[in-house]
Structure formats: C-alpha cells, structure tokens
Amino acid sequence: MLEYVAKRLLWFIPTLFVITLIGFTLLVNSPGDPLDLLVSSLNSRQGTNGNDLEQQKTHWRKQLGLDLPLFYISISQLSEPDTLYKLYDQQALKTYKALLNQTGNAQAINAFRDALYKSKQLFNRELQVVKKDSAQALRYMESSHVILANLNVLTLQTNPEKNQVSIQTILSHSSNYSSPFIEQIKLLQTAFQTLKNNHTVYKNYIPKLIWHGTANRYHRWLFGSSYSKGVIRGDFGISYIKKEPVMAIIKHKIIWSLFFSVLSIILAYAISIPIGIAMARRPHSKGSKLTELLLFMMYSLPSFFVGVLLLMLFANPDVISIFPPSGIKPIEGYPDGASLLGKFLESLPYMILPLVCYTYSSLAFISRLTQTAVSQQLSLDYIKTAKAKGLSNHAIIWKHAFKNSLLPLITVFSSIFPAIIGGSVIIESIFTIPGMGLETVRAIIAKDYPIVIAVITLSSLLTMLSYLIADVLYAWVDPRIRYKK
Amino acid sequence: MNSITTYLSITKTGHKNRALRIALKTLFIFIVIALLAPLLANDRPLVCKHKNTWMFPAFSLNNNHIISSSEIINYNMGKEWKLISLDFVLFPPCAYSPTSIDAENAPGKSPFDEQFITYKNESTHSLPLKFRHWLGTTQNGNDVLSNMVYGARIAICIGIFSMLIASVIGICLGASAGFFQNDQLKTGPVSLILNGLALFMIWFYGMYVRSEAWVNSLNSGGLLLIINIIATLLISIITLMLFHKLGKWIEQKTGLRQNIRFPLDTVISRIIEVLNSIPALLLIIAVSAIAKPSYTLLIIIIGFLSWTSIARLARAEFLKAKQLDYVTSCRAIGMSHFKIMQKQILPNVLPVLLVQIVFGMGSAVLAEASLSFIGIGVPLNSASWGNLLNEGRDHFSSWWLVVFPGLCIFVLIFAYNTIAKQLGKTSAAIEMKEIEKE
Prior knowledge:
The structure holds two protein chains of two kinds.
Chain A lengths: L1 H28 L4 H10 L6 H15 L8 E5 L12 H14 L2 H27 L1 H23 L3 H14 L5 H19 L9 E5 L5 H7 L22 H36 L4 H15 L2 H12 L25 H39 L2 H9 L3 H12 L1 H11 L2 H4 L2 H7 L4 H10 L3 H29 L1 H5 L2
Antiparallel strand pairs in A: 1-2
Chain B lengths: L3 H10 L4 H18 L1 H4 L6 E4 L2 E3 L8 E5 L2 E4 L5 H4 L4 E3 L25 E3 L5 E3 L17 H37 L5 E2 L1 H20 L2 H10 L1 H33 L5 E2 L2 H14 L2 H11 L4 H11 L1 H16 L2 H8 L4 H38 L10 H10 L5 H38 L1
Antiparallel strand pairs in B: 1-2, 1-5, 3-4, 6-7, 8-9
C-alpha cells in the first residue's frame, strides 16, 4: 500500500510541473504589457507625468522580476540577440522579429534602431530650438510634421522599399535643419543600407540553446522571490485591476461558490439515490422507464436555458414575480445585527432558483450511476444468499447492495468537488452570484489575467489531487488494484 | 464481428429501436437545414423575373445583374427586394438574411405582434405572410428564424469538425497506448535519438521560426489557419516517418539491437490525466481572450481538449482486443503492428468508440452555446443560438429570444445523446449475441 501511494505521489510531481507550465504559458502570452495596467491604475490615484511613468514601470518591472528571461533554458534562432526578452514593448518586439526574419542580422538591426533613436532625440531638440522663435516655427511647420511622421513610421514599418522611401523623404525635408541632425539622418541612411545589404538569413535556421539558470520568470513565479511567495506557497501575484493579492480575492469570493456547490451536491445525492435505487429494483416497470427518459432529457437540457427560463417565469413582473431576479442578498444589505440564521432566511428567496439550476443537471448523472451500481450488485450471488436467508427486501437493498455500490458514488463526489474553485461560470453569471465564476468572467473581460490563471491552475491542481485521493481510496478498499501493474 | 456494417444493417432494419430512428431523423433534418441555410433564409429571392430576364439571386455569386445599360439590379439591396415590383418573384421560406435589419419591426417584435411594412408610396400595411417574422425579431430588428437557421450551421459544424479532430487524436493515441502498452514498443538508441531530433526540428522549424506566420493565421482565423495547420501537420508527419525509417535502416546496417522499451502507455495516460484535470470551459475562455475569437479556433480548441475520453475508451478496447485470438493469429502470419491495428482491431472497436464520439458532439454543441451565451470566445454578432439566448437574457419580455434557440439547442443535444445511448445499447446487445453463439 505504502509503495503504491509513494509511486502515485512521485508521479504527481511531473504533472504538477506540466500544469503550472500551462498556466504560466497562458499568463505570459496574454496580450498587453501587465505593467501598463498596473501602473496606470496606480496613477489614477495620484497624477504623474510621462517621465515618471517610465521610471515607475522600470521599478515595478525589477520588483516583479519581469526583466528576467522566461524559462530555465531558451531555444532560439542563432540570429536573435541573447537579451531579446528585455524588449518589453510588444509592438517594438513584433517589428524587431519581422526585421530579423527578413535579414537575420541582429547587429545591423541594433545599429539601425540606435541611429533611429538618436535621430528622434536630435529632432526633438531641434524642434525645441525652433519653437522658441514663433516666426521660425511657422516656416518649419510643414517639414517638421513630415519628418516626425516618417520617423515614427520607421520604428514600426518593416518593408525595406517603404523604409527607403521614408528615409529619402526625411532627407529631402531636412535641409533647413542644423547640420548635426542632417549628419545623423545620413548615418541612419548608412545604417539602413548596411541592414539592407548584409543579410545573414541562414542564421535564422540554426537553433541556439541558452541556459539561464534559476533567475527566470517561471522559477520566480513558481517558487517565489523576495517579492512574492510563489505559486507553490499559494501566491498567484497581484490582480492588475484590484491591486489586491489574487489569493485574497479568491478567498473572499469562493464562499458563495463553495456554499452553492456543497449544498447542491448534497441535495442532488439526497434526491437521486432513492430514485436510482427505485429504478434498479424495478428495471422493467413503466414508471422507471418514464423516469429514465425524463432524467435523460434533463441531462440534455443546457443549464443556461433552464436558468433563463426560470428567471423569465418566476422573477418576471409580467408573469410571476415570487423570486428576486439577481444577486444573493437584499440590495440594502442584511439588517443590522442579524444572526447567521437571520441572514440565511433573508437570502433564501435569492438562493432557490440558482440551487434548482445547480442541482438538476447532476440529478440524471448520479441517479443513473446509482442505478447501474445497485443493479449490478443485485445480480450477484450474495444477494441470492441473503434472500434465501429470508432477509427483508429493505435490508437487502440498503444494508447490502447499496453499501457495496457506494464506492463509485464517492469517486464522483471527488471529481465534482474541484469544480468549486472555478465555480459555475454560467449559472453564476445568470443569477449574478458574487462567486468565483462571475469573478473569472469579470477578470477575463477586464484582462486581469493573474486571476484567470490562478483559477485555472488551482482547479487543475485540485482535480489532480482528488484523482490521487480517489485512487488511493480505491486501492485501500479494493486490494486487487494495488497489485495490478 | 460487430463491424460498422452489421451495425448499420441493424439500425436499418431495427424497427424495434424507434428512439434511434427518431433521433437520427432529427439530426438529419438539422444537417439539411445547415447545408441549405442560404436557400432557406435569404434576403434575395430564389427566382425572379424582370423585363423578360429570369434571375436567380439567391444562387448567384455575383452581386448584380445587368439588364440594360441603364438598369442594373443590385443583388445586395436587402430589404428593397420586398418593395420593388417584379413580374414574378419567389422568396425563400424565410425572406431575411441573419444580418439584415428590419428597422420597422424593431425593437423586438413578438411572433404574435402585428408586423408592418411601408411601401414606396409611403403607405404602411400589415406585413404579408410570406415576409412575416415567424419567430419574431431581435432588439436590432434581425429576424430570429433566419438567425436560427444559420445557427444550426454553426452548431452542426462545431459538433462534427471538433469531434473529427478529437477522434483522430484520441483513436491514434489511445490505440497505440492500449496496443503497445509499456513494453511492446521497442526501439534502438539511434531511432530514439533521431526521433527526438525530428520532434525538435518540427517544433523549431515548424513553430518557432514561423511564429510570425502562426500569429497572423491565428488572428485571421478561417481558411488560412486551417491551411497552415494541415500543411504543418503533413510536413511534420513526413519528417517523423523519414527520420524513423532512417533510424531503423542505420540500426539494421550496424546491427544494433532494438532493446529500449518506450513506456508509451504511461506517457499517454499522464497526458490524458493532465488534460482531463484542466477545466475545459475556462481554458477555452482564457485562450480565446489571447487570440482573436473565431469559430475555426473554437473548433480546434474543443477538438484538442476533448480527445481524452475517446482515447481512454480506445485504449481499453485495444487492450481487450489485443488478447483475442484473431489478433494472435494475425501476428502469427507476420502482419505488421500498424496493419493489425488499422485493418483488424479498429473496425471491430469503432462502433464502441462511435458512442463516445457522438456524445462528444453533443458536448461540443453545448460548449459553443455556453460560450456564446456568456459572450466570450466567439465572434460577436454572429448568427448562433447562444447569441440569441444571450440577448434574451437581458430582455425578459422577449421570451421568443429564449424559448426557440434554447429548444433548438436542447433538441440537438438530446438527439446526439439519444443516438449515442442507443448505439451503446445496440453494441452491448450484439456482444451478448456473440457470446451466446460461442
């Protein structure tokens, strides 16, 4: 037994690694710079200027470890510079990669980008000089617009012919400006020519392997750093929007999801076990056939359809309005000093429709499972023995058959349980229950990825864990499993 | 042997199994509607006659018809078709396209409300029956029936194509896991290294170097993505085969022994376990928040996430079949592994796998409907049942936006589930018969 558990536990490590890797991949590939969201909402509280913004970003980038390589190793093209991951601006990164695909010459691209950057700086200085004299400013107006536009175009444009044209346009308009600027533009042109003429495309097709060690984003995300505790200790970082730790938000939101899931599971078991047993006892009667058909239809009925129909029928002032349409408690909140029971009674009308919705879909499944398990037991020899002994029907069913068919039911319980973390996205958004499901939908719409990733990773981990527990339970109850290879 | 043919012969003559026949007929109707959608719901008339020229606007790929130098009929005139006078005109059963807006009957006319039309002479009349919005209109004035017809197209496509992907992956992986287990797949060191190298090359040259092309095709969705994936897959398979053969050849020439046992079953079982533990709906939502939503992408994601149940079943079935006599005799006459799997075992276990595949189609339809219901991960404003329901949820008084698409989803899923269940029953019955025969 111990050996079996140890083996399963050892297998748990690679799967954990894979699951966190999937979560991390999603997180890294989420569009937009996380710092844009983080810093912008920090600043909405205190006004700051643009220069400060960049400083703040650099500060946070260092703090959060976003300036590190992604993973322990990286496999890249030989032409790629080793520190390409430090190019944070996604638009710039896209341009850079496109240029790299065309030319395969990182050195020339860097030289070109440097020249471009310097040209921009020089041009800004020129503009400041020009602006001081209002008479001159008018004279320079048209050319400055053209040059500025073309310089901006050059940073994003990758088509060599078009770039050539842009540089020519800048040159032809820059005759009025000071000589250092013209010199710089000429340098830009040479850099561009070098880039255009020195292609080393073959370098794109040679793989390069770099070892980054533990100073990488995945390692920090998983095991933590001075700043965070790491996923392994339950720290999924900070929500971009709410600025609170993700775990705190989950802890706050999970209560309602947990409440509904547990209550509905209990309800579903309480209703469907008697149904399943009744169906198993008289498998060919008309009643059990009809029940089976009904349950099967319920199984095919999408929960969101049922939810909206229920709301339309019972929470609609035009038809019957006995239940409130949304939320989980009165809008004005619970009355002061209400006890737990009082709160429950206040919330009861809000809970009935969601509970119906939560419960009905698992009814069919669990009853069917009970039916198969019990009827399988009923066909076994020991039941015949029990009958021959003269045991009552009631005792045979409940004391023998049902007891022995409990195991599959428990396994199902363990597979339903992890769904709590994700909540039921659909039902919670229909009835606006403030649980994990609704929070996840909100996070996705607001592009608050740390929450989404935390929910996905956590619920996968919990599922894996519950598989493990179920397997161990099975092996404990049924020794045959342990010895099977 | 319970092959597919025995199956179909049973279902054909299976007058006993009424449920299966009804469900198959229902599914057939949905498929016909999906295929004929542009002829069933369209702004353009099917046939019309104007100044002695016959035109077939609904069938035409052109956008206009030149009658004379001064008169051109524009096929995309939308509502105008109903207002102009023609010598003869025959409209489709539902005379609206899903996107066409009937502003006069917005927002949200119920099927029983009086609906109006204003003719060119500015007289307003009650809408004639042939133009009636039989199932009402949405808030924008789109025809609900027309949206439902096109929604059938999306639902059927999602179900069939995603399960096509899932069953190819599931059967391939599950079959090899069940057939080879942990100790049957033997390779030599050279083959192993060369296969690893081939996989690396596929990833590096197929994915990494071409990352720009992948991003572009992901964002475009549609045909470009499909072509990209199929081309990459084909090249990958050819590369793998070549390297595999090369490895074998080298090993034969050098006389190296093929004694490394590849634990295929363990690897595939672990992959299934991990994929199973990921909440599929949430993953689809998260992925589609990263890439631009499109139905092609949705089909691919659903396909790549739902192959696990098919693979599990295929693994169990192949494991069972492997120990049967006919496989042993095939081995004795020296049939190759691949041939045994493909020509002998697969036809025998396919009916059982079909049960799971059909169930999967139902779940794929449900997944698409759920996603469009919460409005994430699917293209906005497309004609799908879930989108209609989504609108109905905000307007309780518009019951027709909830009831009709909801019923359609229910009926389609119910049909799929019934087919699967009845097929399962039939295969169990056939198995019983065979046991009795023996």
